[in-house]
Amino acid sequence: MAGPTLVWLRDDLRLADNPALTAAVSRGHGVVVVFVLDDESPGIRPIGSASRWWLHHSLAALDASLDGMLVLRRGPAERVIPALVDELGATAVYWNRRYSAAREIDARIKTSLRDAGVEVESFQANLLFEPWTVQTGDGGPYKVFTPFWRACLERGGVREPLGVPDLGAVLGAPGSESLDGWGLLPTTPDWAGGLRDTWTPGERGAHDRLDAFMGGALSRYHRRDEPAVEATSRLSPHLRFGEVSPFQVWDRVHGVSANSAKFLSEVGWREFSWHILFHWPRLATENFRPAFDAFGWGHPGDEVLAAWRHGRTGIPLVDAGMRELWHTGYMHNRVRMVVASFLIKNLLVDWRVGEEWFWDTLVDADEANNPASWQWVAGSGADAAPYFRVFNPELQAKKFDPDAEYIRRWVPEYGTPDYPDPIVDLARSRQEALDAYEAVKAAAASRG
User: Fold this and answer.
1) Catalytic (active site) residue 308
2) pLDDT tens-digit series, residues 361-405
């Protein structure tokens, strides 16, 4: 007699449009749903503090949707999953594919379980276009977004999202660990008050957010670069944890507004980042463009770095963005580019330092978008400008926050004697960055 199917969830914490779960229910014989907290296996990047907060609440919401049947286990997946298969007498294991270096773990588990006579299947769930399906004319990966996204759109064939399968097939299992026991939430000090006020993790919260976007912000999306205007979707953390799928977003947004194509191209940037990470798995630690190994990063000191992290630089738009991040675990995308450029170009700090800070403080930090975005701003990444772009935060503020509405929201002392002087001269530091870039150009020229 066939045993139950084990469904192993990762970054797909949802019931609707979950191909692995749907296929497992269709197979019959009962389903056990498990989430494994694996923060120790090689190839796994342990998530940051803000993401741990989100994960706790997302798992709690998922467990409630499953009537308390979600199984939690902690440890290396290559030990936990086979042990759970033996414990349950499971005869099949299903999961949705992932595209980071962790896929090597999946491949080894798949091979060992199949060798033991267990059926193992994986599914496309979290990307519209899987990395190996979109190739250049010579069969290689794309390194520039525009031709990549054009090739994706020419492929077409975005499937319709799946519904919620019959959850009566979901079984409990003995030995589930305590979510509270995992210690994902902050204790003393409790810094998550702003996160609680801002977000509702979980599948229902994701669809409420999508509904709100469709009901208002999409019509204003052409003003997405203005941080004081509610014109963006704020779906990024829900997509990061898979509480909503890109197929569901595509289905709701495609063709319904004059702004739809532009918004979906931003979803395309998410796809492009994963495409890059799939082919260059060390994206968070190595320059995508090796010539940037010659860039002369400075050493501003702990005090200057702390001023950037906590929004005390004396540069209003930078400070507003960093305070928004500290309070909400989120930052407007235009401002993300400005604060990253300021750290890299004006303070001459290695982009990896900023990437690690965002990894710890963003609720939407994922393994592809976070390093890809930092490298893009640094100029070391894929599709970077052919020249060395330096965002001027004062000009950016005048253009995108002309009434300082966003700045005053997060920096109430702006314009008063209590606001600090700038920690760096923007013009002089810009020139120092351009001078440092000369070494990169020379290194690139020597490579031919």
Assistant:
1) no
2) 999 999 999 999 999 999 999 987 777 889 999 999 999 999 999
All structural domains of the chain, each given as residue ranges with its CATH number in brackets, are 5-126 (3.40.50.620), 127-159+202-279 (1.25.40.80), 290-447 (1.10.579.10)
Q: How far apart are CA 269 and CA 246, in angstroms?
A: 12
Q: Is 410 a catalytic residue?
A: no
Q: Which of 54, 95, 308, 351 is catalytic?
A: 351
| Euclidean distance between CA atoms 127 and 279, whole angstroms | 15
State yes or no: is 8 an active-site residue: no
- CA–CA separation, 406 vs 320, rounded Å? 7
| pTM for this prediction | 0.98
For residue 31, the cross-strand partners are: 5, 170
Phi–psi pair at 35, nearest 5 degrees: -120, 130
Residue 392 among the catalytic residues:
no
Number of other residues whose CB lies within 10 A of the CB of residue 328: 19
The residue annotated as part of the active site, out of 78, 119, 177, 266, is 266
How confident is the model over 68-117, as pLDDT tens digits? Answer: 999 999 999 999 999 999 999 999 999 999 999 999 999 999 999 999 99
DSSP string of 236-299, one letter each residue: HHHHHTTSS-HHHHHHHHTTSSTTHHHHHHHHHHHHHHHHHHHH-TTTTTS-SSGGGGG-----
- Selecting among 269, 274, 357, 376, the annotated active-site residue is 269
